[in-house]
Amino acid sequence: MKPLLELAGVHTHIGAYHILHGVDLVVPEGEVTMLLGRNGAGKSTTLRTIMGLWQASSGSVRFDGAAIGGPGNAQLPTPAIAQRGIAYVPESMGIFGDLTVAENLVLAARSAARVDALDKARLDWVFGLFPALKKFWLYPAGKLSGGQKQMLAIARAIVEPRKLLLIDEPSKGLAPSIIRNLVEAFNELKRQQVTILLVEQNFMLAKAVGDSVAVMDDGRVVHAGAMAELAADETLQQRLLGLALGAHQ
């Protein structure tokens, strides 16, 4: 697979803090790339740097063959990055609690100004992934359960076709049944050849959906390879992550 997203030597500073220390990362087109690592390793900062929410102080971010991030004029503003086909689901989910499920999806759809202007076939496909959203279509998003809010956050990212999804810890705090639903949804997105860069702490989910994996530590990528190879090597898991996937089945 050709790379859709490439980070080369990316450093990111937030105020006085040097968070990313030369990140090299390749995300192949049409695959799910897992971004793993201990808390504080720099995973969320990597996603925010890709989206231009924080600017790289050195290095480059290239998407679909073109520069979108880096110091100075190399940095595109976040709206321009989104318009190139990248959607970002933050750990906070970023939904609007006072608006209905329907209104949240309209806000995320660039081509629709009203609910009845949403692509019906696309919406039916989203409902197939997350049936609860159809049931609670007119409910305020703030009244949804945690799992339903996460479904809405991901639905906002895919209500229109995107080239790349950046998703930050979608399973955090969710019940196992909801996590299984997310696994099914991510596998369906894979079948649709959607490219995903997924930060996750749940190793069952990582093993179930990941094609490739990059492991971060102290602001650097310290391992990159096939997710299946990492899942099969408990010694490597212990060295990179401090625990074994077998304990999280």
TrEMBL record:
Residues 5-243 form the ABC transporter domain. The keyword Nucleus does not apply. GO terms for molecular function: ATP binding; ATP hydrolysis activity; branched-chain amino acid transmembrane transporter activity. GO terms for biological process: L-amino acid transport. Keywords: Amino-acid transport, ATP-binding, Cell membrane, Membrane, Nucleotide-binding, Transport. Belongs to the ABC transporter superfamily. This is Branched-chain amino acid transport system ATP-binding protein. It comes from Rivibacter subsaxonicus. The lineage of its organism: Bacteria, Pseudomonadati, Pseudomonadota, Betaproteobacteria, Burkholderiales.
